[in-house]
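ok, trying the design again with the full structure, not the truncated one.
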């Protein structure tokens, strides 16, 4: 019976993970659609700016265009800020963050492997501890060991953290991976 129970638990976890990934994909797709709409709006506003400048050119007084150009520029700035917010949300859903050098890294990276920038982490929120009676009973059987073949990886000379093949800095301690 324990085999069937383990199989059921494994399948349940797989279904839960698949459901979460599907929901995440749907949300990311919606965010990409919103970004696309905002970019089209920016293009439309650029065309309006161009039209206003051309009309002012024809009237031989470019200062006439200023009154219609400034509100369009403000609207474009607002749309760009919204796009940045939507892109940040996508990275959050993917558990990623972007370095100031433009490199996208996993959220828990401490140092950018591309430029060595140190990421600051916010203070963790306090965690509520359940009373002993509400805790789940501990599993008495030890999990079976899983044998995994290790692939050859480079490690940091300073802290021995695994390094990506193209890393120039350690993502854990920021030490330069000099060649």
């Amino acid at each position: 019976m324990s085999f069937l129970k383990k199989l059921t638990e494994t399948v349940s976890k797989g279904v839960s993970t698949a459901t979460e990934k599907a929901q995440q994909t749907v949300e990311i797709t919606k965010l990409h659609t919103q970004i696309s709409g905002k970019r089209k709006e920016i293009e439309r506003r650029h065309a309006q700016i161009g039209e206003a400048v051309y009309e002012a050119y024809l009237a031989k007084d470019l200062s006439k265009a200023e009154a219609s150009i400034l509100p369009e520029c403000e609207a474009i700035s607002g749309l760009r800020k919204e796009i940045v917010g939507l892109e940040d949300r996508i990275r959050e859903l993917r558990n990623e963050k972007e370095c100031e050098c433009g490199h996208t890294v996993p959220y828990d990276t401490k140092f950018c492997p591309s430029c060595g920038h140190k990421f600051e982490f916010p203070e963790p929120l306090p965690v509520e501890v359940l009373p002993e009676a509400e805790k789940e009973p501990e599993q008495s059987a030890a999990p079976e060991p899983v044998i995994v073949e290790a692939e050859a990886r480079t490690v940091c000379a300073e802290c021995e953290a695994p390094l990506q093949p193209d890393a120039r800095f350690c993502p854990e301690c920021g030490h330069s991976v000099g060649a």
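Keeping the full-length input from now on. The radius of gyration is 26 Å.
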